[in-house]
Specification:
By secondary structure, the protein is of the alpha/beta class. It has one domain: Alpha/Beta hydrolase fold, catalytic domain (Rossmann fold), CATH 3.40.50.1820. It is 31% helix and 22% strand. The longest helix is centred in the last third of the chain and has 18 residues. It is globular, with a radius of gyration of 17 Å.
Length: 262
C-alpha cells in the first residue's frame, strides 16, 4: 500500500490532497473521495487507504484550498469528534462559510484538475468512481453530472443540499448522469427529510441511464458514516460500504489492462 500527500495544480492555486493506491505499477481505476465540512485530515486518509486496499487509486482533495489548509477537529471527553451543532456559533458560522463556497463551478474546476493530475499517476484512463460525505456527497453528484463520460459510479453519504430551489440543484441535473448512483441517508438527518429522499427517487426515476439505490438508516444522524465521530453508526456504515464496493466492482475494472466493467 502506498499513501502520500500530494499537491494538485489548479487555475485557482495548489490543491493539497492525499492519495493512496496498491503496491505495483498499476494502472488502477480512479476513485475520488470528497471531504466533509471538517476538512482534509487523517480520518479521511485512513478511508482512502481502505478504498485503495480494494484495488483502486483513491485521491482525497482539499476542497477548501482557496482558503488554505483548513483542518478542524473538536473532540469530546471520549476522544470522538463532536457534531457540528455542538460547536460555538462563531465556529459554525466560519466552517459554514467555507462549505457554502463549494458550488458546482468550483467543483468542476477542481475535479478537472484531479483528472489532469492523474494522467501522470498510475491511474487507468477508463471509468472512475467517487464518493463523499456531507458537502462531499454533493460534490460526488457534481462529478457524475459534469463528467459523466468518466464518473459512472458515484455515492453520497449524508449529503447536504442535494435538493434545493436552485436551477443547478443536484436533483435537477440527474439526467446528466450515467452508470450507477448510491445515497446513504440517516433517518434523523435534517438533510434527509422524507421530502428530500422522495424528490431524489423521483428525479432518478426519470433517467434510465442510471441505476439508483439508497439506504435510509433508522436512528442514524448526520455524520453517521465517519468512524471518528460521536454519531458513528457501524451497522449503517457497513451497509453503505457493501453497496459502494459492489457498485465499484460492477462499474470499474480493477485489473491493469482491463476495459470497463460490464
Amino acid at each position: 500500500m502506498i499513501g502520500k500527500e500530494i499537491d494538485i495544480p489548479t487555475p485557482a492555486g495548489t490543491m493539497d490532497s492525499y492519495a493512496a493506491h496498491p503496491d505495483g505499477v498499476g494502472p488502477f481505476p480512479l476513485v475520488v473521495l470528497f471531504m466533509d465540512v471538517w476538512g482534509l485530515r487523517a480520518e479521511l486518509f485512513s478511508i482512502a487507504r481502505k478504498v485503495a486496499g480494494r484495488g483502486y487509486y483513491c485521491v482525497a482533495p482539499n476542497l477548501f484550498y482557496r482558503d488554505g489548509r483548513v483542518r478542524y477537529e473538536k473532540r469530546n471527553a471520549e476522544g470522538k469528534m463532536v457534531s457540528f451543532e455542538t460547536l460555538p456559533v462563531e465556529k459554525q458560522v466560519k466552517l459554514r462559510g467555507y462549505s457554502t463556497k463549494i458550488d458546482r463551478p468550483r467543483c468542476k474546476v477542481d475535479i478537472a484538475a484531479v483528472l489532469d493530475f492523474c494522467r501522470n499517476e498510475p491511474v487507468a484512463a477508463g471509468p472512475a468512481g467517487s464518493f463523499g460525505y456531507c458537502l462531499g456527497g454533493r460534490a460526488a453528484f457534481y462529478a457524475g453530472q459534469e463528467f459523466p463520460d468518466r464518473f459512472c459510479a458515484n455515492a453520497s453519504l449524508h449529503g447536504t443540499w442535494l435538493v434545493t430551489e436552485a436551477p443547478d440543484s443536484p436533483h435537477r441535473l440527474v439526467d446528466h448522469m450515467r452508470g450507477e448512483a448510491y445515497c446513504g441517508y440517516g433517518a434523523n438527518d435534517r438533510f434527509a427529510t422524507p421530502e428530500i429522499v422522495a424528490a431524489l427517487v423521483q428525479a432518478f426515476a426519470g433517467n434510465s441511464n442510471v441505476r439508483y439505490r439508497f439506504n435510509l438508516h433508522a436512528d442514524a444522524g448526520h455524520g453517521y458514516g465517519l468512524p471518528d465521530r460521536d454519531v458513528y453508526d457501524p451497522a449503517a456504515t457497513e451497509a453503505d460500504w457493501l453497496e459502494i464496493f459492489a457498485m465499484f466492482e460492477r462499474k470499474l475494472a480493477r485489473s491493469a489492462g482491463n476495459g470497463p466493467a460490464a
